[in-house]
Amino acid sequence: MLTLAYLKEKPVTNAPSFLIETRDPPAKKAIMLAALDLFVARGIEGTSIRDVAEKAGYSNPALYKHFASKEELAFALFERCYGEMSAWLDRTLADTEGPFPERFEKLIAAYTGLLDKCPEASIYVNENLAAFWPKMPAAQKKRTLITRYREILAAGRKEGAVTNGQEEELLVVLVAGTLAQFSRMIYLGGLARPAGKWAKPLSKLLLRSLS
């Protein structure tokens, strides 16, 4: 986890369009942005309502006006972050044509673009999936991020670009796990930003591993 001193110096995340909505009042926008920064850096359990309110620049009562509890706020963030990642994958898959390696490269480029908007979203989803997934709407559960990765790899297998010599689920773990760790490295500074500059070498590494 990052230090409190770092958090006080770190500006609130630039507001990505998926995290806040135009109809959200200013207090709610600030609270959600502050909460995402703190929840990712310190964990939900390590963050208090007072911490969120202080970072957002509002009082505790202002926070409770929009969210009945810290747990409700945390889940609202998870829903929005997961929803954007799902929509990102669907948009990318719908817009890509050509052979599998080319489509896969576009997929990784889109993912790094999402990280350049808000790396916290990916980290928050991956680290809180087990806690919040049971609460997600049934429609969302029918088509998960993992389901989408599996479909991408299945298409690659049909073209002969993805190996048949490994279990399908291990290949899904390879892609999903690599992207999750890449997100952490970008967020923590282990890899220099922008994330987009790593798109081509990352896609080449994964394609080589998948072939």
Computed Rg: 18 Å
| SS elements, strand count | 0
Give the DSSP E fraction (strand runs of 2 or more residues): under 5%
Structural class: mainly alpha
In the CATH hierarchy, the third-tier topology of the domain at 75-210 is known as: Tetracycline Repressor, domain 2
Point out poorly predicted stretches. Answer: 1-13
CATH architecture of the domain at 75-210, please? Orthogonal Bundle
Distance between termini?
36 Å
What summary fits the major beta sheet? none
Assign the CATH class of the domain at 75-210. Mainly Alpha
Helix content: over 70%
Overall form: elongated
Continuous helix count? 11
- CATH superfamily grouping of the domain at 75-210: Tetracycline Repressor, domain 2
Chain-averaged pLDDT: 87
Helix-strand topology string: HHHHHHHHHHH
Can you describe this structure?
The protein is mainly alpha-helical. It has helices spanning 4-9, 26-42, 49-56, 60-66, 70-95, 100-117, 119-132, 138-142, 145-158, 168-188, 199-210. The protein has a domain at 75-210: Tetracycline Repressor, domain 2. The two termini are 36 Å apart. Helix content is 70%, strand content 0%. Helix 2 (26-42) crosses helix 7, helix 7 crosses helix 10 and helix 9 packs across helix 10 (168-188). The longest helix has 26 residues, at 70-95.
What's the layout of helices and strands?
Elements: H1 4-9, H2 26-42, H3 49-56, H4 60-66, H5 70-95, H6 100-117, H7 119-132, H8 138-142, H9 145-158, H10 168-188, H11 199-210
Helix pairs in contact: 2-3, 2-7, 5-6, 5-7, 6-7, 6-11, 7-10, 9-10
